[in-house]
TrEMBL record:
Entry similarity comment: Belongs to the inorganic phosphate transporter (PiT) (TC 2.A.20) family. Pit subfamily.
Reactions catalysed, as given in the entry: phosphate(in) + H(+)(in) = phosphate(out) + H(+)(out)
BP term (GO), one: phosphate ion transmembrane transport
Entry protein name: Phosphate transporter
Membrane topology according to the record: Multi-pass membrane protein
Example of a GO cellular component annotation carried by this entry: plasma membrane
Membrane-traversing stretches: 56-79, 91-112, 157-179, 199-218, 225-243, 349-367, 388-407, 438-460
Any one GO molecular function term: phosphate transmembrane transporter activity
Entries under InterPro entries matching the protein: Phos_transporter
Entry-linked Pfam families: PHO4
Signal sequence extent: none
Length: 461
């Protein structure tokens, strides 16, 4: 038995561990702020468009607003990477080992790369930690990795992480070329000297793009900490947070009516846990069909119901992706999955505020290392105002679209790719040594965090 497996839900030990997990999650989000958001302020600081203190405070405020006004699709896209029995253990235990493994792995890698001044992705580190949980859970239960790990979801997430910097590189290169064709002020294409800011309209563009990237970062990366905080409170206090108690009787009865179709689809197209999924769908149908509202469901039943919902959601995804499934059945599996997911996806207001505060505060501290790397070490010459504007305009558009579309992307990757694209477009070229460091960090992040997370999960659970 793992050293954390003896903690009982709702006990004093669980409360203590909740405080530790929340501290780790908030530390991760804090590190995300000073690690990733330095990308948003790098251009305005380095081009002297804003004073450093003004820039980071303004960026922190915009990050706060981004978290508060953004959605939650990214948060739960990440949560779905975790196997149901690790997320909500069916034996009534709490997910203590899972939580500790995720937070320590992702936070440790984040801090290590920051200390080296390498613009590494917090998103990448977090995804690796989540995949590590799925890998260890599969090995522990003797399941093939192809069944225990939702590789379809993993590839979707990794594809967005891979494509976004390539798009950032290409689009920023094109934006810089266009700007150079239209505007012929040579001062915009040379590195700033003597603390003099660029011409007023370029300064306005740089301040606007800093604002937009910071807000977009909040809508995307802020959701990741929201997902982690929800993992924590659901995993440690399932009786209070496993279900959205604001669900109405009509919503519950609608879901109950879909569970017959869910059981049928899972039974025909599910994976090696299809029988468990069928039983879970029928149990949800029975319990939700008898409930007058979410708050009317007894506290003691909520952890088991959450586990059933997680299992049915996973099996419906597997069914919808099964080879040979007909188009009508695939569409129906998706519809039922989305309906059930709509009730499982909820965020209390205080979770959003807590995430926003930590991301905003983290933005205001520790930005200098990454700013120096992007401004002075990425290209063979220092960053020019036009390069910063082109990179940040593209980054704001890509990150904002991804945040509201439910795609986890890396602010670091997008902005770094954009600046690199402008360096190539300007003829300055890229500093190969720094590019190799960033590439090595990118390549190592996933296997390193997977191994760290899986190993810690094995030891603790």
């Amino acid at each position: 038995m793992g050293i954390l497996a003896v903690i009982a839900p709702g006990s004093t030990a669980a409360i203590v561990f909740l405080a530790i997990c929340l501290a780790l999650v908030l530390a991760f989000e804090f590190s995300n702020g000073f690690h990733d958001t330095a990308n948003a302020v790098a251009t305005v600081i380095y081009t002297h468009s804003l004073k450093p203190v003004v820039a980071v405070v303004w960026s922190g405020v915009m990050n706060f607003l981004g978290v508060m006004l953004g959605g939650i699709a990214v948060a739960y896209a990440l949560v779905e990477l975790i196997p149901p029995d690790a997320l909500s253990p069916p034996d009534g235990g709490i997910a203590a080992g899972m939580l500790a493994a995720i937070f320590v792995s992702a936070l440790g890698w984040n801090v290590a790369t920051w200390l080296l001044g390498i613009p590494n992705s917090s998103s990448h580190a977090l995804i690796g930690a989540l995949v590590g949980i799925a890998v260890e859970d599969s090995l522990r239960h003797g399941r093939a990795l192809g069944q225990g790990v939702d590789w379809h979801e993993v590839w979707d997430v990794l594809l967005s992480l891979l494509v976004s910097p390539v798009l950032g590189f290409g689009l920023a290169m094109a934006a810089f070329w266009l700007l150079k064709k239209v505007v012929h002020d040579e001062a915009l294409y040379t590195p700033p000297e003597g603390g003099k800011p660029p011409v007023w309209w370029m300064r306005g563009i740089l301040v606007f793009t800093c604002t937009a990237v910071s807000f977009a970062h909040g809508t995307n990366d802020g959701q990741k900490s929201i997902g982690l905080i929800m993992l924590t409170v659901i995993g440690l206090f399932p009786m209070s947070y496993a279900l959205n108690t604001d669900m109405t009787g009509a919503q519950l009865h609608g879901i109950a009516g879909d569970m017959g179709a869910a059981a049928d689809l899972i039974g025909r197209y599910g994976d090696d846990r299809r029988q468990l999924g069928v039983a879970a769908a029928r149990d949800i149908g029975r319990r939700f069909g008898d409930a007058a509202s979410g708050s009317a469901i007894p506290d003691a039943e909520r952890p088991a119901l959450r586990n059933d919902m997680n299992l049915v959601l996973t099996e419906l995804k597997r069914a919808g992706e099964a080879p040979g499934i007909g188009e009508a059945d695939r569409k129906r599996a998706h519809e039922v999955h989305e309906t059930l997911m709509g009730t499982a996806q909820y965020v209390p207001w205080w979770v959003r505020v807590l995430s926003a505060l930590c991301l905003g505060a983290g933005t205001m501290i520790g930005y200098k290392r990454i700013v120096t790397t992007l401004g002075e070490k990425l290209g063979k010459q220092h960053l020019a105002p036009a390069q910063g504007a082109a990179a940040e305009v593209v980054a704001a558009g890509l990150i904002g679209a991804a945040g509201f579309g439910g795609f986890p992307v890396s602010t670091t990757h997008v902005v770094t790719g954009g600046i690199a694209g402008t360096m190539v477009a300007s003829g300055a070229g890229i500093e190969s040594g720094m590019l190799k460091q960033i590439a090595v960090a990118w390549i190592l992040t996933l296997p390193a965090t997977v191994a760290l997370s899986a190993g810690l999960f094995y030891l603790l659970s």
